[in-house]
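Self-study notes.
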Amino acid sequence: MSRTASAPTLAPRIVATTARRIRRRLAALLLRVVAAVAEALGYRLLRIRDRGSLGVADGAVPYRTRVFDEAVPGVANLDPALLAALRRAAADAAAHGVAFTVNSGWRSPEYQRQLRREAVARYGSEAAAARWVSTPETSAHVAGDAVDIGPPEAAAWLSEHGAAYGLCRIYRNEPWHFELRPEAIEHGCPPMYADPGEDPRTRR
């Protein structure tokens, strides 16, 4: 007599094994989705964390904001010429597989003042803070004339190709910070300052 299980005996086992595999795969997929959503929400909350009464309306930028996001004041309130150049660059970069996000753009004076206070607390003095964060009265962000681009590969792409759009890095210590310099299209970007503290505009 053969010890090999008959087809009717094997069928329920095969069905049960297949069902278990499907359940495991679905459970793993669900866990990945939940983890991705949690991570995205965590970063989003981190990026727009409460600064008293300050928030998106004052220029805080939600996580993964794109240069085409009209509903975000940090983008919509940028100088129109700067924003147009940035969108042209972003469209061309996307064709090469590089996606721009806006880490910071326009800021209200109140938001800039809060960032300056945080910088003083972090770096220990007004002089040290000035290397990273300008005052509301001198900030190009408050004027809508500056944008901070991420992630690093996008900032690197714009650093290399930005002059063709009139977009230039201004500070050596801030590879993410870009401003519009229309003359750069023909003459290239001007020499960079070491940091905002060297910029004559911040000494007014």
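Second protein, same conventions, sequence then structure:
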Amino acid sequence: MAVSGPSSGGGVFWQINITPLTDIFLVLLIIFMITASISVESAAHVGLPLAENTSPEKRGVVVTYTAEHEIFVNSKDIPASELQGALRDALARIDPKVVIFQGDRKVLLGDMVKILKVAKAAGADQIAIAAKRASVDEIERSLR
């Protein structure tokens, strides 16, 4: 805060200098934007599970989601807008209503949750996530 008197004499005139305050807010805003983008980016990707013992699941509808945002239902390319109808048709033909999600390592968690939510709405009773068979050493390395 700066105090200056008018040149014509008389009372005291108070003038607030907000430039330093603006500078501080801008620096804080930049720091917040950088830390927010780093924390969102690091938490967004799904590390698909590794398992030492896996058993092939022959019964169920396999939904594959690629890193390029392509969706396949039982190896058939499906647009995202038609996913629920395709899943409903595929689940109607099988007795245990199981959907097996098979996704790329770069699949975002939000995308996976949306697809599994559509699968539940289409009538899936159970949802499974496909795992890659790995040795104990590979599993321990992925946990580090």
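Instructor comment on the second fold: Strands lie at 2-4, 13-15, 50-51, 61-65, 71-73, 76-78, 98-103, 126-129, 132-133.
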